[in-house]
Amino acid sequence: MRPALVLIASLLLGVAIGAASTIPQWTATNDFGSISHPEVKRASSAGEPMPKAVVVGDAIFEFGKMNVDATERHTFQIRNDGDVPLQLEEAGTTCKCTLSTLAKKMIPPGETVEVELEWHPIAYANEFTQTATLRTNDPRQPELELKIHGAVVRAIYMEPNEVNFGHVTAGDELSAAVKVVSVVSDDFKVTGVKITGDETGEATAKVVPLTAEELEATEGGRSGDKVEIYLPKGLPIGATKMRAEISTNDPKTTMLTLLISVQIGGDINFISAVKIDQDKNVMMLGTVSGETGKEVKVNVLVKGPHRDETVLSVDKIFPDFLQVDLGEPKKLNQTAVLYPMTLKIPPGTAPASYLAGNTGELGEIRLGVKGNPQTEEVSLRLYFAVE
């Protein structure tokens, strides 16, 4: 019976050895779905030559702080300290981290390969950690995890992030100051400011270093400058919007955009039962019947220190079929003078459109102004069509 037992044991041992020497195809699952890896073969017997995967330095890269919606990269190094070639495969990454470069997948003994990770966070996070996994044929370390860790913050920000002067009187001098701050650099600077959208061409900006006290009052600021915006007196009545393009010495945030808005209200305003867009001085007459026409009463209100010396006259009427009658001024009280004005679209007017469509034209009543140093003319534009 003993020889039979030895034979059976030998057969079982042979089956076990055969099974150990054959690596079956297997499948791993990561964030991108199932990935099959039939070609990775691992050394399995003690004493056999084996590869040895070693991450040179640290397998975790601390990037500190970075700006949201920015892109960062870091290169890891993996060395083969074993006796046979080390085989590497991409086994998947977390959804916010990309394994962008794996220089080669078979590393001879003693050689090193570089692996580059790239990440692009789209939301703020005090703790931002992402991982890329490499599968190896090293039986002692079948997987390598490479991690990046840090905080996603507003690396560079403006305070305030826009300037709205609100409603102001024509002729007022306007200025505002904006802090431009970095929370990651000790040498951040504003290198230039360009203002666009200024019809007068006289809006200016000045860059001044932040004082230690001003920097301390910011939210985590380490360095920065103050941008002072100055608007000229001659801005037109109505809404004005500008942009300040702020360039910096930061290689990742070379340009910031500051929105600037102001509503200029003069001493002369139009008032009517018909809706008037005061931001643009546009009366919304709508659709008018050419057969019956339309008549609208408008009050022109003059305020301010020059109200009594101000004299109004009708300088322009467009289109020509409009009829405008500007009455004599009436002193309402100690603060305002009123000019009654009647606007008429006469019966029998031919069809026409002044809806700022393809032609971009609106109707217009332009009043000349004398005796008021703030303005020489004021216009009421008309949005209407005759059918």
TrEMBL record:
The keyword Signal applies. Keywords: Signal. InterPro entries: DUF1573, Ig-like_fold. Residues 1-19 form the signal peptide. Coiled coil: none annotated. It comes from the Bacteria. The keyword Signal applies. PANTHER family: LIPOPROTEIN-RELATED, SIGNAL PEPTIDE PROTEIN. This is DUF1573 domain-containing protein. It comes from Blastopirellula retiformator.
